[in-house]
Amino acid sequence: MTCAVCSRQAKGLGWFNPRLKRSDPARYSDRWVFCSMACQNAFSQIMNKTEGNMINTTEMENEAIVSCLMPLGDYVGTIGLQRPLADFSRQEVLTLIEVVVTAFQARMLAEHERVACRDRAFLEQRLARQQQWPSTGRTA
Ligand SMILES: [Zn+2]
User: Fold this and answer.
1) What is the average per-residue pLDDT within 11-19?
2) Where are the domains of the chain?
3) What is the pTM of this model?
Protein backbone atom coordinates (compact mmCIF):
# COMPACT_ATOMS: atom_id res chain seq x y z
CA MET A 1 0.00 0.00 0.00
CA THR A 2 1.21 3.48 -0.82
CA CYS A 3 0.37 6.79 0.82
CA ALA A 4 -2.64 8.49 -0.82
CA VAL A 5 -0.82 11.85 -0.66
CA CYS A 6 2.84 11.27 -1.52
CA SER A 7 2.99 7.62 -2.68
CA ARG A 8 5.57 6.57 -0.10
CA GLN A 9 5.05 3.26 1.72
CA ALA A 10 1.89 3.56 3.85
CA LYS A 11 2.17 2.79 7.57
CA GLY A 12 -1.23 1.86 8.92
CA LEU A 13 -2.64 5.38 9.15
CA GLY A 14 -6.11 5.56 7.63
CA TRP A 15 -9.05 7.88 7.22
CA PHE A 16 -12.84 7.54 7.00
CA ASN A 17 -15.55 9.97 6.00
CA PRO A 18 -17.44 10.81 9.22
CA ARG A 19 -20.23 12.46 7.18
CA LEU A 20 -21.39 9.05 5.96
CA LYS A 21 -23.22 6.39 8.01
CA ARG A 22 -21.24 3.48 9.41
CA SER A 23 -23.19 1.15 7.11
CA ASP A 24 -22.25 3.15 3.99
CA PRO A 25 -19.37 1.41 2.18
CA ALA A 26 -18.24 4.79 0.80
CA ARG A 27 -17.37 5.81 4.39
CA TYR A 28 -14.15 3.84 4.05
CA SER A 29 -11.67 3.35 1.24
CA ASP A 30 -8.64 1.11 1.27
CA ARG A 31 -6.91 3.81 -0.81
CA TRP A 32 -7.06 6.23 2.15
CA VAL A 33 -3.85 5.13 3.82
CA PHE A 34 -0.86 7.30 4.73
CA CYS A 35 2.84 7.16 5.44
CA SER A 36 2.81 9.78 8.21
CA MET A 37 0.68 12.03 10.37
CA ALA A 38 1.67 14.94 8.11
CA CYS A 39 0.12 13.28 5.05
CA GLN A 40 -2.90 12.03 7.04
CA ASN A 41 -3.52 15.56 8.39
CA ALA A 42 -3.09 17.20 4.99
CA PHE A 43 -5.56 14.73 3.45
CA SER A 44 -8.02 15.10 6.32
CA GLN A 45 -8.02 18.89 6.06
CA ILE A 46 -8.65 18.78 2.33
CA MET A 47 -11.45 16.22 2.73
CA ASN A 48 -13.04 18.38 5.44
CA LYS A 49 -12.72 21.49 3.29
CA THR A 50 -14.22 19.77 0.23
CA GLU A 51 -16.88 18.02 2.36
CA GLY A 52 -15.63 14.60 1.43
CA ASN A 53 -14.99 15.26 -2.25
CA MET A 54 -11.30 15.04 -2.98
CA ILE A 55 -9.80 17.86 -4.99
CA ASN A 56 -8.66 17.28 -8.56
CA THR A 57 -5.53 15.27 -7.86
CA THR A 58 -4.80 14.73 -11.53
CA GLU A 59 -3.89 18.38 -12.02
CA MET A 60 -1.79 18.34 -8.85
CA GLU A 61 -0.08 15.12 -9.92
CA ASN A 62 0.65 16.56 -13.35
CA GLU A 63 2.30 19.58 -11.77
CA ALA A 64 4.28 17.28 -9.49
CA ILE A 65 5.51 15.32 -12.52
CA VAL A 66 6.61 18.53 -14.23
CA SER A 67 8.44 19.53 -11.04
CA CYS A 68 10.62 16.40 -11.45
CA LEU A 69 12.13 17.68 -14.71
CA MET A 70 14.68 19.99 -13.09
CA PRO A 71 16.13 17.49 -10.58
CA LEU A 72 16.08 14.80 -13.28
CA GLY A 73 18.03 17.06 -15.65
CA ASP A 74 20.46 18.03 -12.88
CA TYR A 75 21.20 14.39 -12.05
CA VAL A 76 21.56 13.25 -15.66
CA GLY A 77 23.87 16.24 -16.18
CA THR A 78 26.18 15.00 -13.42
CA ILE A 79 26.49 11.45 -14.78
CA GLY A 80 26.73 12.32 -18.46
CA LEU A 81 24.01 13.87 -20.57
CA GLN A 82 25.21 12.24 -23.82
CA ARG A 83 25.32 8.66 -22.52
CA PRO A 84 22.53 6.33 -23.66
CA LEU A 85 20.36 4.92 -20.85
CA ALA A 86 21.60 1.40 -21.69
CA ASP A 87 25.09 2.48 -20.56
CA PHE A 88 23.90 3.58 -17.12
CA SER A 89 24.94 1.28 -14.29
CA ARG A 90 22.26 -0.30 -12.13
CA GLN A 91 23.17 2.14 -9.33
CA GLU A 92 22.89 5.15 -11.66
CA VAL A 93 19.42 4.04 -12.78
CA LEU A 94 18.34 3.46 -9.16
CA THR A 95 19.61 6.92 -8.20
CA LEU A 96 17.80 8.42 -11.20
CA ILE A 97 14.54 6.80 -10.05
CA GLU A 98 15.13 7.97 -6.49
CA VAL A 99 15.74 11.56 -7.65
CA VAL A 100 12.45 11.59 -9.58
CA VAL A 101 10.35 9.83 -6.92
CA THR A 102 11.73 12.08 -4.17
CA ALA A 103 10.98 15.22 -6.19
CA PHE A 104 7.45 13.97 -6.96
CA GLN A 105 6.71 13.10 -3.33
CA ALA A 106 8.12 16.37 -2.03
CA ARG A 107 6.00 18.37 -4.45
CA MET A 108 2.84 16.42 -3.63
CA LEU A 109 3.32 16.87 0.10
CA ALA A 110 4.19 20.57 -0.28
CA GLU A 111 1.10 21.16 -2.43
CA HIS A 112 -1.20 19.39 0.03
CA GLU A 113 0.29 21.36 2.90
CA ARG A 114 0.02 24.62 0.94
CA VAL A 115 -3.69 24.00 0.27
CA ALA A 116 -4.32 23.06 3.91
CA CYS A 117 -2.43 26.17 5.07
CA ARG A 118 -4.34 28.46 2.71
CA ASP A 119 -7.64 27.04 3.94
CA ARG A 120 -6.58 27.42 7.56
CA ALA A 121 -5.61 31.08 6.93
CA PHE A 122 -8.99 31.71 5.30
CA LEU A 123 -10.88 30.23 8.24
CA GLU A 124 -8.76 32.12 10.76
CA GLN A 125 -9.45 35.39 8.91
CA ARG A 126 -13.19 34.72 9.01
CA LEU A 127 -12.99 33.89 12.69
CA ALA A 128 -11.01 37.07 13.41
CA ARG A 129 -13.58 39.15 11.50
CA GLN A 130 -16.41 37.61 13.51
CA GLN A 131 -14.63 38.48 16.76
CA GLN A 132 -13.86 41.99 15.53
CA TRP A 133 -17.46 42.69 14.62
CA PRO A 134 -19.68 40.55 16.81
CA SER A 135 -23.26 40.18 15.64
CA THR A 136 -24.60 43.22 17.54
CA GLY A 137 -25.86 44.93 14.44
CA ARG A 138 -22.73 47.09 14.30
CA THR A 139 -21.13 47.34 10.84
CA ALA A 140 -17.59 48.02 9.80
ZN1 LIG B 1 2.76 10.36 2.59
Assistant:
1) 87
2) 13-132
3) 0.52
